[in-house]
Amino acid sequence: MNPLHRTPVHDVLDVGVRAINGLLTVGRGQRLGLFAGSGVGKSVLLGMMARFTKADVVVVGLIGERGREVKDFIENILGEEGAPARSSWPRRPTCRR
């Protein structure tokens, strides 16, 4: 799909982090990349945004992360709401309630 044919983002998404909402506003349906050096709090910020975003479903892609780091992120940062899925697994819905 050509990215230029996507519908424009019009609605603001409340990500639950006041600094992001005020300075780096995110739109509903927008893709977001988070890039920074090691040890600066990317996982903590990503976890806060995933937990406190006012949305029914939040999809987080941890591209290039080791399995140990993904497990730590899901267990310690996301908590019980986290539902892992790997790209090598067959496609099926994974949701915990």
UniProtKB/TrEMBL annotation:
One of its GO terms (molecular function) is proton-transporting ATP synthase activity, rotational mechanism. Residues 16-82 form the ATPase F1/V1/A1 complex alpha/beta subunit nucleotide-binding domain. InterPro entries: ATPase_alpha/beta_chains (IPR050053), ATPase_F1/V1/A1_a/bsu_nucl-bd (IPR000194), P-loop_NTPase (IPR027417). Its EC number is 7.1.2.2. Keywords: ATP synthesis, ATP-binding, Hydrogen ion transport, Hydrolase, Ion transport, Nucleotide-binding, Translocase, Transport. It is an enzyme of class 7 (translocase). SUPFAM superfamilies: P-loop containing nucleoside triphosphate hydrolases. Belongs to the ATPase alpha/beta chains family. This is H(+)-transporting two-sector ATPase. It comes from Chromobacterium violaceum. The lineage of its organism: Bacteria, Pseudomonadati, Pseudomonadota, Betaproteobacteria, Neisseriales.
